[in-house]
Design brief:
The complex is a heterodimer of chains A (111) and B (115).
Chain A: E1 3-6, E2 11-14, E3 19-21, E4 23-26, E5 32-38, E6 44-50, E7 56-59, E8 62-65, E9 75-77, E10 86-93, E11 100-101, E12 105-110
Parallel strand pairs in A: 2-12
Antiparallel strand pairs in A: 1-4, 3-9, 5-6, 5-10, 7-8, 8-9, 10-11, 10-12
Chain B: E1 4-6, E2 10-13, E3 19-25, E4 31-38, E5 42-49, E6 56-57, E7 64-70, E8 73-78, E9 87-94, E10 105-106, E11 110-114
Parallel strand pairs in B: 2-11
Antiparallel strand pairs in B: 1-3, 3-8, 4-5, 4-9, 5-6, 7-8, 9-10, 9-11
Classes of the chains: A mainly beta (111), B mainly beta (115).
């Protein structure tokens, strides 16, 4: 079945550092891929998405590229801010009738 | 702006009480979902619904039931609350298609504490 594997957190970075959160997936066919962000005490918000191979999703300085050859959708940001501290979830929509989520990666950014 | 609204942000209930968590969406979405979120366990699907009066069990339905009498409203019911149901509960909705290509829209969550 479909599955998503994210790097374990927490990830702790200094402000302005480069961020990568790894996400790999297993799915048949051509899934759509998503990154969600959850700020403290809040629900999940869609951060970005990609619906086909080689698509790049981007939003708020975050980017992720749909790599079918490596079944990956890594999240990157060139310069993180304290306000980016949150939990990040990778997810896919494949053959199952609902989204499959990773377990989430907590990011903490310090001054 | 499209919204999924959960009726309470914080809720404290006693063991054995019947608890209703309400979720309303204004996007005319067919699909609605209830998840619980616990530290180290990620999101776990409790129940979902593809249409009015339809429901499907998710991964952890035990101790919960749901009701969907109107398209915009999806209620989660804890028949007899227990302390192990203390958690953050998240409601979501989506158009048909399993989340493709738009993903889900989530509510802000209800943090339930059972004492």
């Amino acid at each position: 079945g479909d599955s998503v594997t994210q790097m374990e957190g927490p990830v702790t970075l200094s402000e302005e550092a480069f961020l990568t959160i790894n996400c790999t997936y297993t799915a048949t066919g051509y899934p759509s891929l998503f990154w969600y962000v959850q700020y403290p005490g809040e629900g999940l918000q869609l951060l970005l998405k990609a619906t086909k191979a080689d698509d790049k999703g981007s939003n708020k300085g975050f980017e992720a590229t749909y790599r079918k050859e490596t079944t990956s959708f890594h999240l990157e940001k060139g310069s993180v801010q304290v306000s980016d501290s949150a939990v990040y979830f990778c997810a896919l929509s494949g053959t199952a009738s609902k989204l499959t989520f990773g377990t989430g990666t907590r990011l903490q950014v310090t001054l | 702006d499209v919204k999924v609204t959960q009726s309470s942000r914080y809720l404290v209930k006693r063991t054995g009480e019947k608890v209703f968590l309400e979720c309303v969406q204004d996007m005319d979405h067919e699909n609605m979902f209830w998840y619980r979120q616990d530290p180290g366990l990620g999101l776990r699907l409790i129940y979902f619904s593809y249409d009015v009066k339809m429901k499907e069990k998710g991964d952890i339905p035990e101790g919960y039931s749901v009701s969907r009498e109107k398209k915009e409203r999806f209620s989660l019911i804890l028949e007899s609350a227990s302390t192990n149901q203390t958690s953050m509960y998240l409601c979501a909705s989506s158009p048909p298609g399993g989340g493709r290509p738009y993903g889900y829209t989530f509510g802000s969550g209800t943090r339930l504490t059972v004492v």
